[in-house]
Amino acid sequence: MTTPMLTVEDLTLAVRRGDDSKPILASVSLSCARGEIVGLVGESGSGKSMTLRTAVGLTPAGSDVSGRVRVSGQDVLNASGKELTKLRSRTASMIFQDPRAHINPFQRIGTFLAEGLRIHQRLSKTAAARTAQGLLEEVGLPDPARHMRQYPHELSGGMLQRVMIAAALASEPELLLADEPTTALDVTTQAEIVSILLRLRRERGLSIVLVTHDLDLAVSACDRIHVMYAGSIVESASATELARAPRHPYTAALFAARPAPDRSELQAVSGRPLGLYEVKGGCAFAPRCPKVIDLCRETAPEPRPVDGHLVSCHRTTPPPLDRSSVLTKGERP
Ligand SMILES: Nc1ncnc2c1ncn2[C@@H]1O[C@H](COP(=O)(O)OP(=O)(O)O)[C@@H](O)[C@H]1O
Ligand SMILES: [Mg+2]
Predict the structure, then answer these.
(1) For position 1, what pLDDT does the model report?
(2) How far apart are CA 50 and CA 63, in angstroms?
């Protein structure tokens, strides 16, 4: 069996502030096989970015972290600073929601890309420029030679996100961690960026973790999806299976809350999402859950397999049978 590209097991993270400790992630487990596109979906503040950053050793200063994280077999949580730099410059690349926040506005696109290539691949100036232009072509920009000479403000958000994907490819990574890469873009451009990611997976054999709050987008792009709520994964399943029959009430609520042509009314998930630090025991979704019972408020549910999904919910297995309803007449006392 080949080593998975990414495995996160039982990852727990809290950020220390003076004497206080703010829990952020609770026992997160997820994986991404080689060549797989995995979605990490959940409302804002659920811990998606923190999970992704921890996967490449970028935790906030003063974090208490436990669990296991492996990228291509390498132990991330126990790696040295030097090993992490190497990991981030060779094996795993990240792209972010707002490309403009991650690019120098006074630097030409060509210079920006070539700089990365010269550092990562130790290319000569000419070779770096040639490779940079090739990368712009690979991410589908219409006029790579011209874009090389342009400044970031001359490109649209969608074009700039393609430049960022090109930059992420400069180190020839095996794993791409994409944190809401399409959130700031219009719907058509979103679809273009997703199709580029799918093509890169196909052509380069890239493994991709796609963080998004857009469930439809995740279902259309991903092989498997992990749904996150208040710092925990509440449901994991293949994308088709999740869309066909969501098992966790939170996943079901997310599906019901999305706009669809066949739905005249939107059903927002009632209540507001909680941060893990606000959860006072029991299931974090209990205050918003339409299926809540006393047990949910008392005990946090453990993940368990249900019809090919992994679900953390007390209500996903049928309640104990009411024996009187199934006893045959003869058995009735
Ligand atoms: N550097 C930090 N220090 C302390 N808390 C943080 C830091 N970054 C994020 N958080 C908190 O961690 C939780 C998860 O954040 P994040 O991973 O950014 O969520 P998401 O990406 O799902 O929107 C939030 O409650 C957020 O306020
Ligand atoms: Mg985020």
Answers:
(1) 66
(2) 11
What's the gap in Å between 218 CA and the centre of ligand 1? 21
User: Which residue among 21, 24, 98, 279 is best mutated to probe the pocket of ligand 1, counting the most ligand atoms within 8 A of its Cβ?
Assistant: 24
- Which of 74, 171, 43 has the alpha carbon at shortest distance from 113? 171
Name the least confident of 76-80, 117-121, 143-147.
Answer: 117-121
Q: How is residue 156 written in tokens?
A: 């649209």
Q: For position 321, what pLDDT does the model report? A: 52
- Binned at pLDDT 50, 70 and 90, residue 269 comes out as confident
Average pLDDT over residues 130-136: 96
Within 6 A (CB) of ligand 1 lie: 15, 22, 24, 42, 44-50, 60, 275
CA of 47 to the centre of ligand 1 (A): 6
E strand or H helix at 177: strand 175-179
Atom of ligand 1 nearest to the CA of 276: 25
What pLDDT is stored for residue 329 in this prediction? Answer: 46
Q: Are 96 and 157 in contact (CB under 8 A)?
A: no
pLDDT at 272 (0 to 100): 82
Collapsing DSSP to helix, strand or coil, 219 comes out as helix
Query: Alpha-carbon distance 32 to 222, whole Å?
Result: 11
Q: How far apart are CA 226 and CA 256, in angstroms?
A: 17
Gap between the Cα atoms of 86 and 81, Å rounded: 9
Give me 20's structure tokens: 């206080």
Instruction: Give residue 278's pLDDT.
Output: 86
Q: Which domains does the chain have, with CATH numbers?
A: 6-106+151-311 (3.40.50.300)
The predicted pLDDT at position 333 comes to 44
> Which residues does 292 contact at the CB level (< 8 Å), separation at least 6?
283, 286
d(CA 255, CA 193): 23
Contact criterion met (CB below 8 Å) for 119 and 150: no
Distance separating alpha carbons of residues 71 and 38, to the nearest angstrom: 14
